[in-house]
Design a protein that fits this description.
Distance between the termini: 39 Å
Number of helices: 2
Largest sheet: 5 strands, mixed, barrel
Helix content: 10-25%
Low-confidence stretches: 1-14
Strand order of the largest sheet: 1-2-3-5-4
Length: 133
């Protein structure tokens, strides 16, 4: 005999109704975080919260901020990447600007994760600019 999902009188499955209520009671930030986590999963990326220091990782998310900060007298472009679970700082040493690296852009990055001042950092990561869906 085939398993039939449980439904309520309104035609929604019990998971559908719970999901609907969860979406209604969630904040905008929570909904964005959930959407980013789905995007990160579809990119085959590791959640940033699961990235360990001194390990290679592939992460995907949205750039929150992009700033130019000198490091040791040389320019460095820094971008904060958020995937819904945590943030990681992407740093390109010797760069003042990279076309397409701008706030709100969806990016997939790969490199060695380090920790500086308690924050996760990836120096000179390989990256791909992704289109939002």
């Amino acid at each position: 005999m085939e398993d039939v999902p449980e439904t309520s009188d309104d035609g929604l499955g019990s998971r559908g109704l719970r999901g609907f209520i969860r979406r209604l009671t969630s904040t905008k930030a929570e909904l964005e975080a959930q959407e980013l986590q789905k995007t990160s999963d579809s990119e085959g990326a590791t959640p940033i919260k699961a990235c360990a220091a001194r390990r290679r990782a592939c992460v995907a998310g949205t750039l929150r901020t992009v700033t130019l900060r000198p490091r040791g007298g040389a320019p460095a472009l820094e971008a904060e990447l958020y995937d819904g679970s945590d943030v990681i700082e992407l740093v390109w040493l010797g760069r003042r600007r990279i076309a397409g690296i701008e706030p709100g852009r969806l990016v997939r990055a790969e490199g060695l994760v380090s920790v500086q001042d308690g924050r996760k950092v990836m120096f000179n990561p390989r990256y791909e600019l992704r289109s939002g869906t």
